[in-house]
Amino acid sequence: MKTFNGKVLVTICLITALIMTAIPVMAGKMQNQLIAESTIDQVMRRGVLRVGMDTFLPWAMKDKSGELVGFEIDVARRLASDMGVKVEFVPTKWAGIIPALLTGKFDVVIGGMGIQTKRALKVNFTIPYDYSGMAIVAHKEKAAGFASLEDFNNADVEIACKLGTTAVTAVKKYIPNAKLRLFDDEAQAYQELRNGNVHAVVGSAPRPAYEAIKYPETMFLPLESNFTREPIGFAVRKGDFDTISFFNNWITIVSHEGWLEERHHYWFGTKEWAHLVE
Predict the structure, then answer these.
(1) Where are the alpha helices (DSSP H) in 195-238?
(2) How many whole angstroms separate alpha carbon 232 and alpha carbon 129?
(3) 210 within 8 A of 274, measured Cβ to Cβ
(4) Which helix (H) or strand (E) element contains residue 51?
C-alpha cells in the first residue's frame, strides 16, 4: 500500500485549508455581486423607481392638467413611497413594452399586464396583485341582435383591439373567424366603434362598460359579464430573484392591509374619479 511522506501530507493539508477558506470568500463575493446587480439595489442607490406603463382607462390616464392618474399609478406611487424613493413613469407603446423592459429603459412594468405563458418566457412575473377580464362593447346598428360571442364569430364581423394586448389573444381564441383591426392607441379603437367602422371593441374591463354608458345612443353590451379572467402581475427582467421576492412580499402586505382592494373598488367599482378626466 502506498503511503505519503510528511512533506506531501503538509502540502495536501495546506491546499485543503486554502480551498476551504476560499469557498466562503468566493460565495460571499458572488452573493454581493448578485445583490449589487439586482434591480432593487439599483433603485435604492438611484433613489428613483422607473415604471414602464401605457394608458388604459382606468388603469392609467392623464387628467385635465396632464398628470397621470389611475389604479396602476396609485400602485406604483405607493410602492415607491414604501421603498423611500421617487417614482418616474415611462410611457411606452404597449406593443414594445417588454422589449423596452429587457433593454433597461425602466425597472418594472406596472401596467395591467396579464400573466401569460408566452410573456413568462421573456420576463418574470410577480404573484397577481389584481385580476382583470375581457369584455366586449358593440355598435347598436352594425351588431343589432348580437347576444353571444358566436354571433360575432363571422368573417364579415370586424373587431377592434389595442395592439399587443391580451384582448388580441382573447379574440383569436374565442372569436377566431372575425376580422381583427389593430390600433396602437386604445382610444382609436373606440373611436372607430363610435364612427360605425367596426362591429365591436374587445378590451379590458371595465372600459367597455364605461363606453356603453357614456355613448348609449351608439353602443351596447351584448354580454352580461366578462368572457375571460386573467391574473395581473408586475413584470421584471429574468434572473432577478431578489427583486421578484421583494415585490411579492410587498403585494402580500398591501393585499392583507386591504389597500389594493380599496383602490381597485375606487377605480373599477365607482366613477368618483370621472371628473378628473372628463
Answers:
(1) 207-214
(2) 6
(3) no
(4) strand 48-53
CA-based radius of gyration for the chain: 25
Confirm if 179 and 157 have CB atoms less than 8 A apart: yes
Is the omega angle on the peptide bond into residue 216 within 30 degrees of 0, that is, cis? no
Residues 210 and 248 in one domain: no
Q: What is the pLDDT of residues 171-182, one digit of tens each?
A: 999 999 999 999
Domain that holds residue 141: 134-220
Do 123 and 102 form a contact (C-beta atoms < 8 A)? Answer: yes
Q: What three-state secondary structure class fits 240?
A: coil
If one counts the domains in the chain, the total is: 2
Is the pLDDT assigned to residue 208 strictly greater than 70? yes
Phi and psi at residue 263, in whole multiples of 5°? -70, -40
Question: In this structure, what C-alpha cell is assigned to residue 273?
Answer: 374619479
Q: Is the dihedral of CA 84, 90, 94, 98 positive or negative?
A: negative
Count Cα atoms within 13 angstroms, Cβ side, for 60: 24
Euclidean distance between CA atoms 92 and 106, whole angstroms:
10
Indicate which CATH number applies to the domain containing 158: 3.40.190.10
Give the global pTM.
Answer: 0.76
Q: Are 124 and 235 in contact (CB under 8 A)?
A: yes
DSSP strand pairing (200-204 vs 134-139): antiparallel
Residue pLDDT, tens place only, 100-110: 999 999 999 99
Are 104 and 158 in contact by the 8 Å Cβ rule? The answer is no
